Amino acid sequence: MTFLLNLITAAVLYGTPLLYGTSGEILTEKSGNLNLGVEGMMFMGGALGLGAAFYYEKLAGAAVSAPLAVVIAIAASFLAGALAALLFSFLTITLRANQNVTGLALTIFGTGVGQYIGEFMRVREGTYVAVSNTLKGAFNGSPFPAFLPALPAPPTAFSPIWASPWPWPWACTSTAAAPASTCARWASPPPPPMPPASASPAASIWPPSSAAASRPSAAWCIS
C-alpha cells in the first residue's frame, strides 16, 4: 500500500511539469500543427535554465540576486524553447517535412542537447552542477503574494455542499439556544418563477411535478 501511495505521489509530482507542455501543444494543434517534440524542447529549456542560473551565481558571487537569477533562468529556458520551435517550424512549414517524424526527431535531439549541456558543465566544473540553497529557496518559493494561497476555494461539482466554507442562501446559523431544529430545509434548487400570463399553457413549467414535490429533503447548518 505504501508503494502504491508513493507511486501515485511521484506520478503527480513529476507529471505536473508536463502539463505546461501539454497546454502549449493544445494551442499548437489548434493552429493545425502536431509537435511531438515538446519533451525535447522542455529538456533543452531545463538544462539551459540551470546553466544560466548556475553561471550567473558563479559570476555574481556574494552579490547574487535571487529574483534576478530566477528571471535569467526563465529567459534562458524560453530562449531554448524558442530556438527549438523555430527549428521545428522551419522543417515542417518551410521544408514541408513530416510533422510526426520531425517531432520525434526533435524529442531525441532535445534530450541529447540537454544531456550534452549537463555533461559539459559537470566536466568543466569537476563535479555535479547545482545552485546554492538561497537560489533553491527562490525557485521553490511561490511567486504569488502570500494571501492568495490562503483564499478559500469556492465549491465545485466534486465538493460536497455541506463541506463548503461559503454561506448559502438556504442555510442557517446554529447556536446553543437555537439548535439544528431551526435550519432551513432543502432538497433541490429554488423553483423557477411563475410564467407570464401571456405564456402558452403548454409551455408552462409550473407547478412542479408531483415526483419533484415528493423528493426527500434534508436539513443542514453552518455552525
Notes on the structure:
- With 223 residues, the protein is mainly alpha-helical.
- The protein is 54% helix and 2% strand.
- It has helices spanning 2-30, 38-60, 66-94, 99-125, 133-140, 210-213, and strands spanning 185-186, 218-219.
- It has a two-stranded antiparallel sheet.
User: Structural class, from helix and strand content?
Assistant: mainly alpha
Report the helical percentage: 40-55%
Low-confidence stretches: 157-175, 178-188, 199-223
Mean pLDDT: 75
Shape: globular
Tell me the fraction of residues in β-strands, as a range. under 5%
Q: What sequence of helices (H) and strands (E) makes up the elements?
A: HHHHHEHE
Quantity of strands, as a count: 2
Computed Rg: 29 Å
Largest sheet: 2 strands, antiparallel
Quote the distance from N terminus to C terminus.
37 Å
Number of helices: 6
Main sheet: which strands, in order across?
Answer: 1-2
